[in-house]
Design brief:
Layout (H helix, E strand, L loop, with lengths): L8 H7 E4 L3 H10 L1 E6 L5 H12 L3 E9 L3 E4 L2 E4 L3 E8 L13
Helix pairs in contact: 1-3
Length: 105
């Protein structure tokens, strides 16, 4: 008994904030065929899956989400903290690929 959930296209366009291009994200992409995105703090796995499929025209197999706490930083005598972030590790189905380095056409 699976229910089809409709997400508004406007909401889906706002869910993905940016792709994560780092050494760890590149390693994960090569080894596990996953892509890493920064997402909105209140985004659900189903919204992330729908947003990736809508924006990049690929099929998503699964989504894992990690909440990352912001680091404590100090400037002089003032303490501060960087923002908390939420990352989505999106596993694509075999044969699917998202390439951020090629030019948009």
């Amino acid at each position: 008994m699976s229910a089809v959930i409709k997400h508004s296209e406007e909401r889906l366009m706002k869910v993905l904030l940016a792709p994560v291009i780092s050494e760890k994200a590149t390693f994960v992409a090569e080894k596990n065929e996953q892509v890493v995105f920064l997402v909105m703090p209140d985004a659900t796995k189903l919204e992330i899956k729908a947003a990736v499929e809508l924006l990049f025209k690929v099929q998503v197999e699964s989504v894992q989400v990690a909440n990352r706490q912001g680091k404590q930083k100090r400037s002089g005598r003032f303490n501060g903290r960087r923002n908390h972030t939420r990352r989505a590790f999106v596993c694509l189905k075999p044969g699917q690929e998202i390439n951020f380095t090629e030019e948009a056409k």
